[in-house]
Design a protein that fits this description.
alpha/beta, 9-stranded parallel beta sheet, 14 helices
């Protein structure tokens, strides 16, 4: 006898073994439909075909939303734009369309407007509870990776982020694979992505860590939250990552550097200028940055003596001090991006940076010399474009076996550069300014 069986919301392989262990359990022509959030359960069970449910297109999303919000009737004139806003929030997810439509049913226009505005701050709990099931089933390694992607790395290159996360002691190669299997993230053009509602769920996980005290959250990425913690000196050792887009600032930002002393578990520190991030058009970079720098400067008070030794990613565009702290020694640091800084030198004496691969100091026009790189054996890329005061590149650069990119364009005062070059991998670019 032919049968049609639907096994819904499977989350353990044992469930499938018990209910549909083998093809020969069923007569020819039978159909067994299995729904799950975990693709690996299907591949390991050797199902005949896997279908990934897609987001609803606009027309079908409207039909489903109208069904729950208006009982299949068309919205009146004053609700049309509000429906568009609701569809933008749900992004074609049937669950979200059903829940939000049911929530707004029989409510006034003012209540619709208030409810949709509320969603920008407080996500719908019913939607969140369902989306969070997959997150709660992760182990700590996958949870860390997922939250980092949601807060810091969405849209970035998978291979690059893998390298960054590995330096922090995580296991992203298996972790990212598991997140894909559980439909929490996707890969497109080798970049990491996730649905907006899933990202919102991740943000809510962080918010719940400390609803009232921002400085007790593990990750800070909303500009207003970051500024609040910095200016009130309320950071704690709970903070593991900070991201601040400097290009959005309209007022001067002032804070005491002692705020970093409390954040001794900081892994990611990124003060960046979004308009120049990711572009190689340096004329455009110079124009946009100079325009921003005139309008909005960052002011530090106190003597910066401490930055977390756990940092594996440090980006500080426009860093306003002459050097990094003397005891700055993060052994897991992979990337140092300090474009447009006021650095005169990075550090004194020989320091060990065994994981450091990328240095970007372009337009640091006060930089005089580079440090000894002999204890940074993995260095692969160094960009010093338009460091106009640079006089000396330490001769240790000649012994870097893995250096593939060296850019010294515009370093017009460079007078000392190693005559002994043994950089076996250098092949992409050596670009020197015209010298005297």
């Amino acid at each position: 006898m032919k049968v049609l069986i639907v096994i819904d919301d499977v989350n353990h392989r044992q469930q499938l073994k018990a209910l549909a262990g083998n093809h020969d359990w069923f007569s020819s022509g039978s159909r067994i439909i299995i729904t799950t959030r975990d693709k690996s359960l299907l591949t390991k069970s050797k199902v005949d075909a896997i279908y990934k449910v897609k987001e609803l297109d606009r027309d079908k999303a409207l039909m489903l939303f109208f069904h729950h919000a208006f009982e299949d009737e068309s919205p009146t004139e004053g609700f049309v734009q509000l429906c568009v806003n609701a569809l933008h929030y749900t992004k074609g997810i049937p669950l979200a369309l059903k829940v939000l439509g049911s929530f707004l049913y029989c409510r006034s226009k003012a209540e619709w407007e208030s409810g949709l505005e509320k969603l920008k701050v407080f996500p719908n709990k019913e939607i969140q509870d369902v989306l969070r099931i997959s997150f709660d089933g992760l182990d700590d390694n996958e949870k860390y990776i997922f939250l980092d992607i949601a807060c810091f790395y969405k849209g970035q290159d998978k291979d690059y982020i893998t390298k960054i996360l590995e330096s922090g002691g995580f296991f992203p190669r298996i972790g990212i694979s598991i997140l894909i299997e559980k439909s929490l993230i996707t890969i497109s053009d080798n970049k990491l992505y996730m649905h907006d509602l899933i990202q919102e769920m991740a943000w809510e996980v962080i918010r719940q860590q400390s609803i009232e005290v921002l400085g007790k959250r593990s990750r800070l990425w909303v500009n207003e939250d970051v500024i609040n913690v910095l200016t009130t000196n309320t950071g704690t050792e709970a903070v593991e990552g900070i991201v601040l887009d400097l290009s959005t600032l309209r007022d001067q930002l002032r804070f005491n550097v002692d705020v970093f002393t409390k954040m001794n578990k900081l892994r990611v520190l990124r003060f960046y200028f979004a308009s120049i991030d990711g572009t190689w058009d340096y004329d455009l970079i110079r124009m946009k940055y100079n325009d921003w720098y005139v309008r909005c400067k960052l002011h530090l008070s106190g003597d910066l003596k401490f930055l977390s030794k756990n940092l594996y990613y440090l980006c500080w565009h426009g860093y306003p001090l002459k050097s990094l702290p003397s005891d700055f020694h993060p052994r897991n640091l992979v990337e140092l991006d300090m474009r447009f800084s006021r650095l005169e030198q990075l550090w004194e004496r020989n320091k060990s940076f065994p994981m450091l691969e990328f240095i970007e100091l372009s337009y640091s026009q006060h930089l005089i010399k580079t440090p000894d790189f002999s204890e940074a054996p993995k260095l692969r890329r160094m960009i010093l474009e338009d460091c106009t005061s640079l006089v000396k590149v330490h001769p240790s650069i000649g012994a870097l076996k893995y250096l593939t990119v060296l850019n010294l364009t515009g370093c017009k005062n460079l007078k000392s550069f190693s005559s002994s070059i043994h950089m076996e991998s250098l092949h992409f670019l050596i670009s020197l300014a015209a010298q005297n």
